[in-house]
Amino acid sequence: MRSYTSYATEFIGTFFLVLTIGCTVFGKAAMAPLAIGAVLMVMVFAGGHISGAHYNPAVTLAVLLRGRIGPVDAAAYAVVQIVGGILGALTAKYLVNPGHVTALSPSGRAIGVALLAEGLFTFALAYVVLNVATSRDQAGNGFFGLAIGFTVAAGAFAVGGLSGGAFNPAVALAAASGGLFAWSKIWIWLLADLAGAAVAAAVFLLLNPEDRADEQPAAAREAASPAEPAAT
Question: What is the reported pTM?
Fold first, then answer.
């Protein structure tokens, strides 16, 4: 099992990710996706060497399926990510005090659109994370945080108006806690985000067979471990 420092890092990173999302969305900031991508980037750089900086249960699932985290740690990561996200959303709502909030509640064709949009960009996020932050060919690179943050920013700009742009079950649950997503439709984000991440892990292993955890020498795994971050 990983140490408490990893769990604390996941909590802090997810809290500030969701706090930024909440403050920019509640405050109707014009460049919200850029702020969200930026805070994710800096939190990934800040915590990558400690916890891997997942800040996202879907990313943790992808890293689990890729073989770089164990089931117990993955479950613990998901718990602290969800708690950190919910507290971040409630803090943002308190700070901004937006008044009445209309929850996003897709229906009809919009359900299919939201599922596809969330699934595609969660796939993109997890795929980028696995390639820039867990591939032994990229070990020790200095751009992983930038790549991860800009993937989320691009997704938020592209489909935020269609699906809410969560790409992260912790963000989705936090958004529902803050009144931004309808609880009755929360399954849309949970299903799409986890499915997108699982497909990304399968594609990563298909395209990078030499990176399968059980085929890596111990020295190679240890050399790659500092650059294992991920995100939203």
Answer: 0.91
Burial (0-12, 13-18, 19+ Cβ within 10 Å), 171:
buried
Cα(135)–Cα(62) distance, rounded to whole angstroms?
13
State the helix-helix crossing angle for 169-177 and 57-66, rounded to 10 degrees: 160
- Token pair, residue 138, equals 């990229």
- 4 Cβ contact partners less than 8 Å away, ≥ 6 residues apart: none
Q: Which residue(s) pair with 104 in the sheet?
A: 181
pLDDT tens over the chain, length 232 residues: 788 999 999 999 999 999 999 999 999 999 999 999 999 999 999 999 999 999 999 999 999 999 999 999 999 999 999 999 999 999 999 999 999 999 999 999 999 999 999 999 999 999 999 999 999 888 888 899 999 999 999 999 999 999 999 999 999 999 999 999 999 999 999 999 999 999 999 999 999 988 885 444 433 343 344 445 555 5
Q: What are phi and psi of 181, to 5 degrees?
A: -115, 145
Direct distance between the N- and C-terminal alpha carbons of the chain, in angstroms, rounded to an integer:
23
